[in-house]
Design a protein that fits this description.
Layout (H helix, E strand, L loop, with lengths): L4 H27 L9 H5 L5 H12 L7 E7 L5 H9 L21 E4 L7 E5 L13 H4 L7 E6 L5 H12 L4 E5 L2 H12 L3 H22 L8 E4 L2 H9 L6 H5 L1 H17 L7
Helix pairs in contact: 1-11, 4-9, 7-8
């Protein structure tokens, strides 16, 4: 049985959209300049500092430039796939000598900055140790890691949300720090569902997304955020790598995942674009 022309057309259109979204992000970082720091007065107050103090402390503590560069933090649980996703954004595989270290235990002990592929020196993806791991208590995580200095937080999780994740969300909401929830390893979850439940990949993908959103909403409601829900993206590091590299997507299942990786790229673009606009007084 052949593939319908409409399906082929849809796949081709999705591929063009993905290439456009990656190119748009690269063009933004190459051609535009931040008009104001990432740190806000409200955000800095969460760390007990003024805006200028937070900017200087981020530079002193992490060599993070919150005034003239873009910085996005990858945070979350051990074994959730943070470092693999950081590598995918760089257009690197996990075995690249320059890549973020990947392992089955927490391998990130200090914040590490990695340049976004194609815009070296303009935007950095930071691999941060997970909250509530040794030396990183959740209750002090916002202040210790100066999360107010980042343009956005990518809170990475595997199957479930932990109390430490909700603690980060609570501070992000309170102090106006942009945050997106990222459910990783979607390709592995889909494969397992296809095998164990004997369903088609498209059905497994739909089920995974529904379950991920339901789980997120349940936990956010339980934490009492008053109807506030962060953006949620269900992604695969393997697929993100191919899209950053501009490589063809190898299967219909992978192309079906496009809207989520593309959506995450779009979220980063939106948050980064805000700093190219002069602040209103």
């Amino acid at each position: 049985m052949g593939i319908a022309l409409s399906t082929v057309t849809a796949v081709a259109s999705a591929a063009v959209a993905v290439v456009s979204s990656v190119k748009g992000l690269v063009d933004l970082f190459r051609n535009e300049t931040p008009e104001h720091p990432a740190v806000t007065e409200v955000g800095a107050s969460g760390a007990g500092m003024t805006t200028e103090q937070a900017i200087q402390e981020a530079k002193r503590r992490f060599n993070l430039d919150a005034a003239y560069k873009w910085n996005f933090a990858m945070i979350g649980q051990t074994k959730a796939g943070k470092s693999s996703l950081v590598n995918a954004f760089q257009g690197m595989k996990d075995n690249d000598p320059r890549a973020a270290k990947v392992g089955v235990t927490e391998t990130t002990f200090e914040p590490q900055a990695f340049p976004l592929s194609g815009v070296e020196g303009r935007c950095f993806i930071w691999d941060l140790p997970g909250a509530n791991t040794p030396g990183n208590p959740a209750k002090n995580y916002f202040e210790d890691k100066l999360l107010c200095a980042f343009d956005g937080l990518l809170l990475v999780s595997g199957d479930t949300f932990l109390e430490s994740d909700l603690e980060v969300l609570k501070h992000a909401q309170r102090y106006g720090i942009p945050v997106a929830l990222v459910r990783t390893k979607s390709d592995m979850h889909i494969f397992n569902m296809v095998y164990s439940e004997e369903i088609e990949p498209a059905a497994a993908e739909r089920k995974l997304r529904i379950e991920a959103r339901s789980n997120m909403e349940k936990n956010v409601k339980r934490a009492g955020f008053g109807g506030w829900f962060p953006s949620l993206f269900v992604v695969s590091s393997r697929v993100m790598y191919r899209k950053v590299k501009g490589e063809p997507i190898g299967s219909m299942q992978e192309m079906d995942e496009g809207s989520t990786e593309e959506g995450l790229i779009g979220w980063i673009y939106t948050e980064a674009k805000k700093r190219t606009q002069k602040p209103s007084h």
